[in-house]
Amino acid sequence: MAFASYFLLFHTLIIPFIYPSIASTFHPNALVLPVTRDPATNQYVTLLHQRTPLVPVKLTLDLSGQFLWVDCEEGYVSSTYHPAHCHTPQCSITRSKSCVDCYLSKPGCNINTCNLFPNNIFTHTNQIGEVALDVVAVHSTDGSNPGKMVIVPNFLFTCGRTNLLKGLASGVKGMAGLGRNNEISVPSIFSSAFNFSKKFAICLSSSTKSSGVLFFGDGPYVFLPGVDVSKSLIYTPLITNPDNSAGPIFHGRPAAEYFIGVKGIRINEKLIQLNTSLLSIGDEGEGGTKISTVNPYTTMETSIYHAFVNAFANELEDVPQEKPIAPFKLCFNSKNLEVPAIDFVLQGKGVFWRILGGNSMVQVSREVSCLAFVDGGIDATTSIVIGGYQLEDNLLQFDLVNSRLGFSSSLLLTQTTCANFNFTSSA
Ligand SMILES: *[C@@H]1O[C@H](CO)[C@@H](O)[C@H](O)[C@H]1NC(C)=O
Ligand SMILES: *[C@@H]1O[C@H](CO)[C@@H](O)[C@H](O)[C@H]1NC(C)=O
Ligand SMILES: *[C@@H]1O[C@H](CO)[C@@H](O)[C@H](O)[C@H]1NC(C)=O
């Protein structure tokens, strides 16, 4: 016992001194990870390397998640794991209010550790879990190719138990929280570890066979055949929601989710009549528009959805409709279908996000295409949730320095796609 505690103390003390010398030899301006869509769950999955020795760890992305969590209960083997002990700077940065004693002395269960609540947004479950630190390795990038691997020696994360993985894509071992308003989200940790600006960008591939990409840090963001998408981004402010609807534990705190100010919706450049008070955010965090990779398709509160579907149908009144296929309400014969443009009119002068056929219609059979938006219900907490299908082949930059969202609209218009990042290493 005396030996064990001596060893622990030794370990805790020495780690912060050894590793920075490895990391400080090279300062990347940006990092890059692949992102694939799991066809069975429609979850967006990335892969990073963690632990000693390093192992690849698959993680589902969560734009509303507050931190990285992984399953520490099964299969976690690492000589550099160390729990975050209560009343240390690592614990205070997490704003954890709990200090727990657990006596198994293994990853996820140690004495005198601070704890947080890892959250599985797909099953709406969370549980208490030990805060810990371990090595994370990821490829740097010059914006065009992956470069040298870089290491964050003390990457802060939270331990989940194996049952929290239920509902996640096969092979996934946790979730990568990309949310805002905290110091321990994955983008925050990377930008402070390498002192680059707190920005990240996602570009989701529309194919399940080829990877999209996730960048940490500023552009360039270059896609074959040499298109730097960071040069043509349009910006709109990110809006603070005073209440975090994502995690029940964190009510009363500003939301970790990304809200933008949709002021209206146009179809074929005609503004739709809708109850605009639903588009602003209320005192309890209700209403407004957020971006989410949890929803496979954009959802709209029922009255907005009906107005939207009716207006879209009016623009295509000469095209034969087909029997709707759930969860969609409006379907057409695909032949010669000319899809009207949908615009989300945004905060900022003349700023709108245009959605064209590739992101608005889904081909459900050889002959039938459906409007790829779904009814969010009359009691939807958030009025519009922009989902995965509408994000694919669009690059989105979450700029936390200037609190704004940069978006590209469809990359197909610039003859590239999110699957066109050149993943051949130049290191
Ligand atoms: C971090 O970056 C900022 C601005 O780019 C710079 O002023 C500062 O000196 C850097 N800090 C370190 C420790 O490199
Ligand atoms: C518009 O929405 C708000 C918020 O849900 C609601 O209180 C109000 O009654 C609605 N107005 C109309 C005309 O339906
Ligand atoms: C991808 O990058 C590699 C390494 O820089 C380069 O050799 C290769 O030509 C690039 N591929 C294409 C299609 O440009």
Could you characterize what this model shows?
With 427 residues, the chain is mostly beta strands. The chain folds into two domains: 3-196, Cathepsin D, subunit A, domain 1 (Beta Barrel); 227-420, Acid Proteases (Cathepsin D, subunit A, domain 1), CATH 2.40.70.10. It has seven helices and 32 strands. The chain has a 20-stranded mixed β-sheet that branches. Strands 20-19-25-26 form a four-stranded antiparallel β-sheet. A four-stranded antiparallel β-sheet has the order 23-24-28-27. The longest helix is centred in the first third of the chain and has 17 residues, at 2-18. The termini are far apart. Residues 1-23 have low confidence and may be disordered. It binds 2-acetamido-2-deoxy-beta-D-glucopyranose (3 copies). One 2-acetamido-2-deoxy-beta-D-glucopyranose is lined by residues 145, 224, 422, 424, 426.
